[in-house]
Each structure stands twice: as structure tokens, then as C-alpha cells.
Specification:
The complex is a heterodimer of chains A (about 120) and B (about 110). Chain A is an all-beta fold and about 120 residues long. Chain A has strands at about 5, 10-15, 20-25, 30-40, 45-50, 55-60, 65-75, 75-80, 90-95, 105, 110-115. Chain B has strands at about 10-15, 20-25, 30-40, 45-50, 55, 60-65, 70-75, 85-90, 105-110. Classes of the chains: A mainly beta (about 120), B mainly beta (about 110).
């Protein structure tokens, strides 16, 4: 099946710094990628939809200036958590859909962010 | 997007068949029913998808009654490694956002 990777797998940073998380579709092109956040023992919450070549669409309550999304190519989307704070500590997961007409999403392995 | 309801948790023993039922009363005509599995600190993994009646693959079976207002994921002969959270989602016919419910935490005991 299609493979989605994320980098880094885990990151620890100081409060106030910015962290970039990469999501790559390794063997397919993805015009649309999704970013989710998952707190401990909670379900995944959709943050935004990343569209190649256009602005991301953010879910209600997600600050677009804090969570910057760039989808510059058909295989790469990045999520930058700006001025991170301890409450941003979470598990960030991306997913991608391989091609038009398919609704099966393939998920990355996730990135564990810890903000001290 | 149709809301789904499924049990919060289930317990089973190795070798048993496990059936997890999900209700989705307001499913739309072009919606598919999709199940994902998630292990701790990993991304969800696609298990199976169906529209109606029965779908079977090497991992599981999915039973969908005629009214499509519910579905049942059947895992044959579970093992300890099947301990995970299982999510039932209703997905639109075209590319769309996935809205995850709380899922069912399945615990398989020896």
C-alpha cells in the first residue's frame, strides 16, 4: 500500500521556539494532505486540510498563524508550530490521499512534540 | 458527515472472534463505511471499507445491513497483537475529511 512518512518522529523543544514537521508521500503523489492532532487517550482531531499549491483550510478553533502549513509539492506538506508552548505538546499525524477518485487515506507514523 | 457511535471498550481472549458494532443513523447515500486500527503512538492503519452487505479481506470482515445504519467489524481469532483502538468512520464518496469518533479500545487477553 501507499506509504506516508513523517519527520521527525519525536521532538523536544523549549517554549517559544518554532518546530517544523514534514509529511511525505513516498510512492505516490498527493494533492491533498491532512493534519491531525491527538492528545493522550483522546481521538484524532482534524486540524487542517493541506492542498498543493494553495492555502490550507483550517478547522474551526485552529489558529492558522500558529500552525503554518505549506504544501509546496505533490509529495511534501509541512506543519510549523510557531512559538510553541507546553499546551501544544501532542501527537501530530498527517495523512494523504493517493490520487483523484479515491477516498482511502494513508496515515503517517506521527510526530510526538514535547514543549518544555 | 455522519456521526458514528461505537462502544468505548471491549475485552476479549486470544483465539476468539470479536465483533465491534458501529451505528451511523444519518449515513448518506454516497457514504462509505471505513474502519481504522490504531496502536499507541502510531498513525491509524486502514483495515477495511464497505458500502453494503459484506466485505472480507485478509484481516477482517465488515457486515453492513440493508438500511446501512450500522455496521459490524468482525476480527476472526484475535491475538494479543490485535489490542488497539478501532475507529469506525463514515466517509463521503469523494475525497473528504475524516472525522474520528472516540473509537473502541479492544483489549485482548491471553
Amino acid at each position: 500500500g501507499a506509504v506516508v512518512s513523517q519527520h521527525p518522529s519525536r521532538v523536544i523543544c523549549k517554549s517559544g521556539t518554532s518546530v517544523k514537521i514534514e509529511c511525505r508521500s513516498l510512492d505516490f503523489q498527493a494533492t491533498t494532505m491532512f493534519w491531525y492532532r491527538q492528545f493522550p487517550k483522546k481521538s484524532l482531531m482534524l486540524m487542517a486540510t493541506s492542498n498543493e499549491g494553495s492555502k490550507a483550510t483550517y478547522e474551526q478553533g485552529v489558529e492558522k498563524d500558529k500552525f503554518l502549513i505549506n504544501h509546496a509539492s505533490l509529495t511534501l506538506s509541512t506543519l510549523t508550530v510557531t512559538s510553541a508552548h507546553p499546551e501544544d505538546s501532542s501527537f501530530y499525524i498527517c495523512s494523504a490521499i493517493p490520487g483523484q477518485g479515491s477516498n482511502e487515506q494513508f496515515f503517517g507514523p506521527g510526530t510526538r512534540l514535547t514543549v518544555l | 458527515l455522519a456521526k458514528t457511535t461505537q462502544p468505548i471498550s471491549m475485552d476479549s481472549y486470544e483465539g476468539q472472534e470479536v465483533n465491534i458494532t458501529c451505528s451511523h443513523n444519518n449515513i448518506a447515500t454516497n457514504d462509505y463505511i471505513t474502519w481504522y486500527q490504531q496502536f499507541p503512538s502510531q498513525g491509524p492503519r486502514f483495515i477495511i471499507q464497505g458500502y453494503k452487505t459484506k466485505v472480507t479481506n485478509e484481516v477482517a470482515s465488515l457486515f453492513i445491513p440493508a438500511d446501512r445504519k450500522s455496521s459490524t467489524l468482525s476480527l476472526p481469532r484475535v491475538s494479543l497483537s490485535d489490542t488497539a483502538v478501532y475507529y469506525c468512520l463514515v466517509v463521503g464518496g469523494s475525497q473528504g475529511n475524516l472525522i474520528f469518533g472516540k473509537g473502541t479500545k479492544l483489549s485482548v487477553k491471553p
